[in-house]
Q: What sequence folds into this?
């Protein structure tokens, strides 16, 4: 079991290093954005079963430090599709699903999605369908 905990801690350290090395989303070349770019791959990893199992293996201080690293690097992720889910994920692991903090972050995410849909609402231009599909996928 100690080796598994050690591996889990090392994996979180590696993810922390990857996050610190990320460029801010707005400065990332277009060809590196999206689901197969560094931001997308890291984002997917945070929502994998392996990530959840890893967090369950490490002690609370290691988990708290890692979640703090995610929160301090949120600005590097896409504001429209990645920051809100990551904020919710951190709140859930820090405070639990039913906590006021988690609920507030979930509501902020929902408001963001609805706000984007309202913006498209009256005048659906050439980007309208893209915005709607992106919001539906979230």
A:
């Amino acid at each position: 079991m100690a080796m598994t905990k050690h591996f889990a801690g090392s994996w979180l350290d590696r993810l922390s290093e990857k996050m610190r090395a990320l460029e801010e989303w707005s400065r990332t070349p277009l060809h590196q954005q999206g689901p197969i770019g560094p931001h997308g791959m890291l984002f997917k990893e945070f929502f994998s079963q392996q990530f959840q199992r890893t967090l369950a293996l490490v002690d609370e201080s290691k988990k708290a430090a890692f979640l703090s690293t995610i929160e301090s690097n949120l600005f590097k992720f896409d504001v429209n599709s990645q920051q809100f889910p990551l904020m919710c994920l951190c709140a859930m692991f820090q405070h639990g699903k039913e906590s006021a903090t988690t609920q507030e972050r979930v509501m902020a995410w929902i408001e963001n999605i609805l706000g984007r849909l309202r913006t498209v609402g009256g005048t659906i231009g050439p980007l309208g369908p893209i915005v709607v599909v992106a919001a539906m996928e979230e």
Remarks:
- The mean pLDDT is 84.
- The radius of gyration is 17 Å.
